[in-house]
């Protein structure tokens, strides 16, 4: 029986009996932008939602409309954190890390090939990317 997993306030992803994330039909009452799996949702202070998932998908929702950003990779993305639409980070398979500055992606070498399942920080010079048996800290370099 599928169950809901709520990691960020009211934003939930359903998981199957086998633990695989399934894209929910709606995120906080909004129509889901894709049929692909979404793995993380983040809401900025201005109300803008961002979502990441399979095949490097990055989606932005503002004013009830979703738009897809050019993907930084075709690897699956699991982590998403940032201060605003002009300053956020993504993490995913094979140690993938990238930063979006509002116009373009900058890929950052993590030096690992382990999947990074999440990313979190307190500011642009204090970030943590993490996965199974790995924790990376950013203070200008990983």
Please tell me about this protein's structure:
This protein has strands spanning 3-8, 11-15, 21-22, 26-27, 30-31, 38-43, 49-53, 58-62, 65-68, 77-84, 87-92, 97-100, 105-108, 116-123, 126-131, 134-138. Strand 10 and strand 11 form a beta hairpin. It has 142 residues and is mainly beta. The chain is built from no helices and 16 strands. It has one domain: 7 Propeller (Methylamine Dehydrogenase, Chain H). It is globular, with a radius of gyration of 14 Å. It starts with a strand and ends with a strand. The protein has a 4-stranded antiparallel β-sheet, with no helix packed on it. A 4-stranded antiparallel β-sheet has the order 10-11-12-13, with no helix packed on it. The chain has a 3-stranded antiparallel β-sheet with strand order 1-2-3, with no helix packed on it.
Summarize the model shown:
The protein is an all-beta fold.
Question: Which features does this protein show?
Answer:
142 residues; 0% helix; four-stranded antiparallel beta sheet; mainly beta; Methylamine Dehydrogenase, Chain H
On the 0-100 scale, what is the average pLDDT?
82
Count of domains: 1
| Name of the CATH architecture | 7 Propeller
Give the proportion of residues in helices.
under 10%
Radius of gyration over C-alpha positions, nearest whole angstrom: 14 Å
Q: What is the structural class?
A: mainly beta
Are there runs of 5+ residues with pLDDT below 50, and where?
Answer: 1-29
């Amino acid at each position: 029986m599928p169950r809901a997993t709520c990691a960020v306030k009211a934003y939930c992803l359903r998981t199957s009996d086998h633990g695989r994330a399934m894209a929910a039909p709606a995120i906080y009452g909004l129509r889901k932008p894709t049929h692909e799996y979404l793995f993380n949702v983040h809401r900025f202070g201005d109300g803008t939602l961002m979502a990441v998932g399979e095949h490097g998908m990055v989606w932005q929702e503002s004013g009830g409309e979703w738009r897809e950003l050019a993907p930084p990779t075709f690897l699956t993305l699991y982590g998403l954190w940032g201060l605003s639409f002009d300053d956020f980070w993504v993490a995913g398979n094979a140690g993938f890390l990238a930063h979006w500055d509002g116009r373009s992606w900058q890929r950052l070498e993590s030096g690992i090939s382990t999947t990074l399942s999440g990313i979190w920080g307190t500011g642009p010079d204090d970030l943590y990317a993490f996965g199974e048996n790995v924790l990376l800290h950013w203070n200008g370099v990983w």
